[in-house]
Amino acid sequence: MPATDSSSSASSSPAHHTSSSSFGRSILSLRHRDHNHNHNQIHHASFPPTPDHSSSSDDREIDAFQRHAADLLLDLLPSSSAASAAPEILSLDWTRHLLDSFLICLEEFRSVLFADAAALARAPLDRLLADFFDRAVKALDLCNALRDGLDLLRHWRKHLAIAAAALAPSPAAAAGPLGEGQIRRARKALTDLTILMLDDKDAGGGQRNRSFGRAPKDGQGRGHHRRTSSGSGSGSGSGSHFRSLSWSVSRSWSASRQLQAIGGNLPVPRPHDVASTGGLASAVYTMGAVLFVTAWALVAAIPCQDRGLQAHFTVPRTAAAPWAGPVTALYDRVLDESKNKDRKHSPGLLKEIHQIERCSRQLMELTDAAHFPLDQDKEAEVQEAAQELLQVCDTLKDGLDPLERQVREMFHRIVRTRTEILDCLSRPSTNTTE
């Protein structure tokens, strides 16, 4: 995987080490937030909370980490409470909330591990950590593919903006009925968009490697995308050229297989392993489950190469943990969305992608074989659909860049945490040699 072989050096870049890297223990000391009755039902539906048999500070810290992970996952689930301010599931805001939760969990996990650094090199914890980081490395290529998917959304937004500008001119423009030229311009932009979305959904990807650890070379960054993607109405030519340059992974790379590698056969710690590691084995398992459900939900939401969601993840009933119920509920909720007939064949489950498809289809139907001048009712319908299109454009404009920064941060945090743990694991053997 080119993106994961040469990117570890980038993790030290100060531009990506935000104040969130100092969360660690301070978050563990926070009082847990109260949740409504429905959340508590999910929390305890199948898996009872882990009893606290030890009074040691390390055990309490590990228990706090697991319970806080459960709280963060519960916050991502829809609530029936009218007072709930949680964003709508699979929206851009919700996806950012998901990444925030993952980054907090990863920092707390790192803090828990370094609270007993001497134990990291001892069996069986060394084996469990090696397995976890093998899975985490696979998430790095997913981060690159997700960034590419966000680039596609930016490209689609440009066509949306053309259609919206044609149908919903600025307030400063002279008011008047929609003309045939405006309708034709909007229809062409939406037709080009539909063709691009179909092409990019089935694209096999190129062989150009772009990673969060590399800077674009020879003008092949986003500016290059802009130059090669204009005028792509035919679905070939420049449209296909954009498609061939849009993916940072090889043609044979598969997000679906990558997810299976991250979540498949996740080793459940045996009671003896938990006891011999002071509970750290449970923390590793917790972080592995959080990594999988985060990566799986991101691939479900954002266009990715071969983004099938066939990867299954089941928490064994023997693994009594406070986060098990929320993980299962979140997985099932996203899976249900993927089976929705309106989203089943969509390039991504992101709410805004669904809005793009719905608004585009509605406008094409409204303007199909339109007679000019439009009657008052037809024009009102077109204007209403155009305003919704404009709103989607604004949401994408405001949300895509912050989301990409969080995906970038996920990439670098995984690299940094892995590097620090591997350095820690190498020290005992060095001392023994001496």
Could you give a short description of this structure?
This protein has 434 residues and is mostly helical.
Cα gyration radius (Å): 24 Å
* Strand runs, count: 0
So what's the overall shape?
Answer: elongated
Query: Which H/E pattern describes the elements?
Result: HHHHHHHHHHHHHHH
Roughly how many Å apart are the termini?
A: 35 Å
Number of domains: 1
Number of DSSP helical runs: 15
Q: What fraction, in percent, of the residue positions are helical? A: 55-70%
Describe the largest sheet: none
Return the average pLDDT rounded to an integer: 77
Unreliable stretches (pLDDT < 50, length at least 5) are 1-55, 204-210, 214-246, 429-434
Strand content: under 5%
Structural class: mainly alpha
Map the helices and strands.
Layout: H1 2-5, H2 24-28, H3 37-43, H4 57-74, H5 92-114, H6 125-167, H7 180-201, H8 222-228, H9 238-245, H10 255-263, H11 271-276, H12 280-301, H13 324-338, H14 351-367, H15 376-433
Question: What can you see in these coordinates?
Answer:
Keywords: Membrane, Transmembrane, Transmembrane helix. InterPro entries: ROH1-like. With 434 residues, the protein is an all-alpha fold. It has one domain. The chain is 61% helix and 0% strand. The protein contains 15 helices and no strands. Helix 6 packs antiparallel against helix 15. The longest helix is centred in the C-terminal third of the chain and has 58 residues, at 376-433. It is elongated. Residues 1-55, 204-210, 214-246 and 429-434 have low confidence and may be disordered.
